[in-house]
Amino acid sequence: MRSILTFVLFAAMLCWLMFAPIYKHVFIVRQAVLQQEVDYLLEIGASGAYGYIDAAMIAASRNRLASWGLDPAKLIYEVTTTSGADATNPLAPVRRGTGIVLTIRYPYERIFEIDRLIGITPPDEHTLITATGMKMSEYVP
What are the pLDDT digits (tens) for 55-101? Predict the structure, then answer.
């Protein structure tokens, strides 16, 4: 009986040691992809040609992130400015010197579920990975 229990515990520990790093890398890649997308959207949106991040840019961003395996329906975009102006309106671009702040959130889902094997409680699947950035608008009318 004791040897069976030892085997089961050893097998669980071995599974966790083999697969936990893979899931942690998936999390790290998701975080990096979200941050890269935030930086890209801010670079385009805050440029002198635009001064905004509109729905079309966000839709294109969702498609790019979907190519990385993220569910576009679960992505949450939040676009604000340091002055309180609307940064999503292409008819009223944010003027030079005003910061555009972009936040993209995505749920952890059940990525750390394997940690239960060794007694670590994983974060709630609805907890969100967050990537945020700010760039000063360069738009001059």
Answer: 999 999 999 999 998 999 999 999 999 988 888 888 888 999 899 99
Please report which residue ranges of the chain form alpha helices under DSSP H.
2-45, 55-66
What one-letter code names the amino acid at 140?
V
The secondary structure of residue 129, as a DSSP letter, is E
Angle between helix 55-66 and 2-45 (nearest 10):
150
When computed from its CA atoms, the radius of gyration of the chain, rounded to whole angstroms, is 21
129 falls within a domain: yes
101 in Cβ contact with 16 (< 8 Å): no
Say if 141 falls within a structural domain.
Answer: no
CB 82 within 8 Å of CB 42 = no
CA separation for the pair 67, 69 (Å, rounded): 5
Expressed as residue numbers, the domain containing 91 is: 2-136
Asked if residues 108 and 74 have their Cβ atoms less than 8 Å apart, the reply is no
Helix (H) or strand (E) holding 119: none
